[in-house]
Amino acid sequence: MRTIVSGRTAANRQPCRVVRRWFVDPVGKTLFIGRGTRRAAGLLGGALGLLSLAGAAGAVGAASAAPAADGAAHRLAIVVGETQYASLPPLDACAASAGAVRARLQQLGFTVIGRDNASNGEMSAILESAARKLAAAPGASFVSYTCGYAVGYERRVFLLPTGAVLQRPSDVLTQGLPAKTLLDLAARGSRPGLTVLDTFAPPHGTAADLPGFAAALRPAAGQVFVAVAEPAAGTIATPVAQHFAEALERAPVPVAPLIDALRQGAATAASAFAVAGDPGDLSLIPPPPPPPPAPHVVARVAGPVVPAAAVPVAAVPTPAAAPAPAAAPAAPAVAAAPQLPEEEAYTDLDRRRVQAALKLLGYYAGDVDGLIGPDTRAAIRRYQHELGAPMTGELTPAEADRLVAGLGAG
Questions:
Q1: Beta strands of 138-179 (E only): which ranges?
Q2: Residue 113, SS3?
Q3: Is the pTM of this model over 0.85?
Q4: Residue 79: phi, psi to the nearest 5?
Q5: Tell me: the pLDDT tens digits for 166-189?
């Protein structure tokens, strides 16, 4: 992990030092960029241990589909649709687009992680969760689809989370997600990997140079990067998302025809289209290996070898069928995690869940002790800022439920 520290002032007006963290995998590929206080430089290692607390509390995780029995444990996808921005016009098309792509991938047996309207901290948690899952399943097929605003800065492309407020161009360095982060994540041993950016240019700011960005990429074999600049946002799924979802209808989903479908969707809306990488003959769902040939059985008798089919066999009475075992009792249904109440009604466990979630998402660096003090209030205000909500320092039930849901992203 590489760390850069710069002087800033926190939301609670107390001096602090902001740390930008590049989390790096063993071969040196950047995974994601996060933010936090200086004390949070060791955040990730401690936060992962808090996932057991989330399980004990029954926290609800990000949207995912249970893997099917036909090898779907080796299929992983990230789907994010950024719609309700704090300082930019809403993108209703992204909610519909992400929903269409997510549904198709789940039907194919992909484990889909992600959420709509993800903040900077939530995106970091999503990417970290995906990195762990890919590390546990080398060779897994990986698909990433992100719909939202994108801007360019210093020949790079940045995706904007919903809470981004860019007062000057350089703010994208701390509030945006580098597009190359997703491609680097796909290259973590997965084969094949498909990364799709379905983007819009904000009303103000530097438009992303997607063709120039794609031309400078050198994806690994089997990795493909596709970027689309939509001309205008509507209320239904983008043509690119519609063609993408249709091409995902049936296995094994060869990657090359899938890219052709994305290109056709871009042409329908006169969208700028850029692609990098060669899919070859790979498919998102490799065909199952052929069954082994049946063994040739022969019966050995005195004299020459005779095929088993030619040897007469005495009739043997068929034994009576054994009675069927009694059906096992159905497992009790698991109740959904209860919603958090108003803050004054929190239990000690509720307060610890809130602190654990704030710490996991990079807003809090203190102890998970169940005591809501000034540091926890400041972390809540930072979280509310990225949601575009009033920075009261006190969570509403809806804000608290969304916060603790991040504990289940892994």
A1: 141-153, 156-159, 177-178
A2: strand
A3: no
A4: -130, 120
A5: 999 999 998 999 998 888 888 776
